[in-house]
Amino acid sequence: MRRFVDEHCRVGTPRPSDVPEVLDGVHGSTVAADGQARPDELGGRARDWIRSLVVADATITQLPLDLTLTPLTDDGLGQSRPIMDWLTTFHLASVVLDPYTNESSWLLRTATNVLEHFRDSDARINLVVTAGADDTRRFLGPLTSRFLVFCDPDRSVPKAMKLSELPAFVFTRVDGAVVATAEGWNPPEWAAVAEAIAEYCSWTTVGIPAADDPGSFRGSPALG
Hints:
Blueprint: H1 39-54, E1 61-62, E2 68-73, E3 76-77, E4 81-82, H2 83-86, E5 91-97, H3 102-106, H4 108-117, E6 123-129, H5 133-140, E7 148-151, H6 156-160, E8 165-166, E9 168-172, E10 177-183, H7 187-201, E11 220-221
Parallel strand pairs: 5-6, 6-7
Antiparallel strand pairs: 1-10, 2-3, 2-4, 2-7, 5-9, 8-11, 9-10
């Protein structure tokens, strides 16, 4: 897999004290836990959801060509590049996070485990964090050395993707089309996005939810 020079490939070893830190809260919690879907319910529901997402290209969001992504590097921020530069060879499998909310911190482990499943596929796995370099590094800790991370303090990415809640799981095709999205934490919807990635990349899908995943909850406002 061809990678940019500022795309990290190292795998750090998390320590017991390495936990995601919710930064000074700027949003109120919108959690309404309604239990966790049973694994045996997900197959058909996920397939129905993915069909509803990709049934017609007219319903797919096309990312604007002037959207840029700025990667986090060891010493700050890397070079911002237009979205199509990141899509030259691979699709993008992105988890978009708001480090100032409980909702994103609660799902950080789940989100990264899901992305890891697709690491060697034709999708470039990444985290998009709606913060600057320092707050992003504080929130992700050792995950900054495991994933390609984009900093998006002005929230241009969730705006372009037409997201309303974070965390979000988003699959973007090489042509810049947002094919599938899941917002907040709804296991069947996340499973549908995973199936879309598997379908486009000829890859195996991943079981969602895992045994230790949290129950479903609504996300926080994507645009702050």
